[in-house]
Structures are given as C-alpha cells and as structure tokens.
Amino acid sequence: MYKLAVCTLLILSVTAIDVTNSVWTSHDQKAFAQIKQSGWGNFILNFGELHLTTGGILAELNTEIAKLIDELDEELAEVHHQYARRTDVHNREVNRLSQEIQDKEREVFNAHDFYDNVLIPQRDRFAAQLEQLQDNIVQNRRTLNEATVQRANDHAEFESLVAEHNEAISAIDESLQLLSQLESPSLVQIQKVQKNLTKIQQSLKRHSTFQTFIKTLLEIAVEANFADQGALREILTAFNNLRVQLVDSLNQLTADEAEAQKDFEARVIQLNQEHAEFQRAVVVKTAEIEANANKIEQTLDLIDVLHADLDTLNGQLQAENDDYAFATDVYNATVAEYNKELNAAHQALDLLNQPRFTDYVKSQLKGAF
Questions:
Q1: What separation in angstroms does the CA of 272 have from each of 136, 141, 260, 263?
Q2: Cα 195 from chain centroid?
Q3: What pLDDT does 22 receive?
Q4: Binning pLDDT at 50, 70 and 90, where does residue 345 land?
Q5: What is the pTM of this model?
Q6: Could you write out the DSSP letters of every residue in 125-190?
Q7: What is the Rg, in whole angstroms, of the alpha carbon atoms belonging to the chain?
Q8: Where does the source fall among the domains of life (predicted)?
Q9: What mean pLDDT is predicted for residues 81-105?
Q10: How far apart are CA 321 and CA 208, in angstroms?
Q11: What is the dihedral of CA 228, 234, 235, 241, to 10 degrees?
Q12: Which stretches does DSSP call E strand in 58-111?
C-alpha cells in the first residue's frame, strides 16, 4: 500500500498520455480509458512513455514493470497471509469461547438443577419434619399431662376404696369383739351388731363381690338366736370369712396401686426421654434448615455470577465475530483493489509492448522537434 501511495504521487507528476492521438484506434482508446481508472495502470503507461521518450530500452522497461507487478503480487500474498493468520486466530478464539460458553451453560444448568431439585425439596422436607417434631412435642406433653391427671384420679379412687375397706374391716372387728363377749346378749347388743352389719353393707355397696356375704350375715342376724352358741359360731365364722375377703381385696388394691404407680413412673420416664429426643431433634433440624438456607443463598449468588460470566463470554464471542467480520470486509475490499490494480497493470504492460505504443512515442518525439 505504501508503494501504491508513492505511485499515485508519481502519476500526478507525469504528463498524461494523449489518447486522442490518431495512432490509437477506438478500441485502444477504450482500453486506455479502462487502464487509466487504475492508479497502477495509469502509472505504468505514463512511466513507459517517459522511459521510452528519454531513450530507454523497452526490455529494461518490461523488467522494471515486471518487478513492480511482482511486488504487488507479494503484497497481495502478504494480505492473504495476514488474513489467514487472523482467520486462524479467530477460529481458535471462537473454539475457545464456544467451549467456555458450553462449560458455563453446563454449570448454570447444574446450579439451577441443584437449586430446583435438591435444595428446594430439602427445604420443604426439613420444614415439614420440624413441624412434625413440634407437633410430637405438643402431643408428648399432652400425653404426659393426661397420664398425670389419670394417675391422680386413679390414686384418689384407690384411697377412697382403701378408706371404704378399712371402715368395713373396722366395723367387722367391732362386731367380732361384741360377739365374742356375748353369752346372754341383750337386745341392745343385738341391735348394735345389726347396726354394724348395716354399716358394712353401706360401706361395701359398690363391691358386688361382698354382697352375698353381707346378705347372708343380715339374714343370720335377723333370724339368729344369739343365745344359741351354735348360731353364734356360725355368725362369727361368716364375719371372719368376710374379713378375710376384705383384707385380701385391700391387699390386691394396694398391690394394683403400687403396680399402677410403677407403670406411671415408667411412662413418665419414657415420655420425658421422648421429649428430650424430640428437643434434640429440633435443634439438629433447625441447624439443618439454617444450613439449607445458607446453601440456597450461596447457590443463588453463584447462579447470578454464572449468568454474568456467561453474558461476558457471549459478549466476547460477539465482539470477536464482529471484529472478524470487519477484518473480512477490509480483506475482501483490499484483495479486490489489488486484483483490480494487478489486472490493470498487466493490461498496461501488454499495451506498452504493442508497436502502436512505440509508434505513438516516436510521433510525440517528432512533434516536439
């Protein structure tokens, strides 16, 4: 291109060929017009005329012009070479950026997949598990409270039954003491025994097991002749049998109460252990929820960074493509210009070697003298 600029200056300094000379045919004049549209073609024609006018040899002129054309070919080859290098750089850069974009898109997909299919379901699952643990704690305390209330009610019932049994046993013992003292019982003593039987009946009216004994004693007490020692022994035997039944019942109640209290205490220990486990599980689950929330935040930040990186890479790829497109446009325009100049140069050189050009130069010299 430097030579092209120099040649342009030279062309401006050289007198243009007069194509209207009678030596030239209309075809020649048309060829001249086409050649003169090219800077190199115009320069070669003017240079050839100057060379021949000053006594130069046509062969030398051909050699010099051929060198100039070779230099143009070399410059064009360098243009091709530089564009090939630029194309190679472009292809490598496009491949690199395309691979990085593909890798980044995979990272974006994986991050979104991890967020959508791992973290969010995990968050929802943890929340549901925490809610279940909290419900378990509420139910655990409710169960403990209900068991405590029930135990208190059962114990109160036990104490009531014990009081009833003790009252009945006390009445029996009093009756046995009275009966043991009877030899010739008075009406008052007999009424006292009957009154104790009524008292026993009232005390044990809720216990159907003892109703048969009470009924028997009442019948005996009503019909018995307490002066009859046989009847008296029968009454004593009945009283003693009832006392044994009451004592056995009281012992069973006491044993059942002890067993119920033992079961209750074991149940309380179990419920408190479960409560402690639930509380520990709540602490662990709360930590998991916090870790999940942190991971969600980190993943969302990562997704933002990855999208920004992807935008940058796509921008770089677009910039590279735009730059290469511009370089290609410049290359095509430059190659077209070189081809135009080379074609004109070859046409000009061909014209210089025609006899008419030499005749034209000679005619110009004769006209000058």
A1: 12, 9, 18, 14
A2: 86
A3: 45
A4: confident
A5: 0.64
A6: HHHHHHHHHHHHHHHHHHHHHHHHHHHHHHHHHHHHHHHHHHHHHHHHHHHHHHHHT-SS--HHHH
A7: 64
A8: Eukaryota
A9: 97
A10: 105
A11: 170
A12: none
Asked if the model's pLDDT at residue 258 lies above 90, the reply is: yes
More confident of the two residues 253 and 349: 253
Residue 247's alpha-carbon distances to 138, 214, 254, in angstroms, are 43, 15, 10
**What is the per-residue pLDDT for 351?**
67
Are 166 and 253 a contacting pair, CB within 8 Å?
Answer: no
Cα distance between residue 325 and residue 19, in whole Å: 42
pLDDT in tens, 101-145: 999 999 999 999 999 999 999 999 999 999 999 999 999 999 999
Phi/psi class of residue 225: alpha, beta or left (left: φ > 0; alpha: ψ in -120 to 50)?
Answer: beta
Instruction: Give me the phi and psi of 322, to 5 degrees please.
Output: -65, -45
- C-beta pairs of 111-118 under 8 Å, 24+ apart in sequence: 111/299, 111/302, 111/303, 111/306, 112/303, 114/299, 115/296, 115/299, 115/300, 115/303
* % of the chain at pLDDT higher than 70: 65
* Close Cβ partners of 75 (under 8 Å, ≥ 6 residues apart): 1, 3, 338
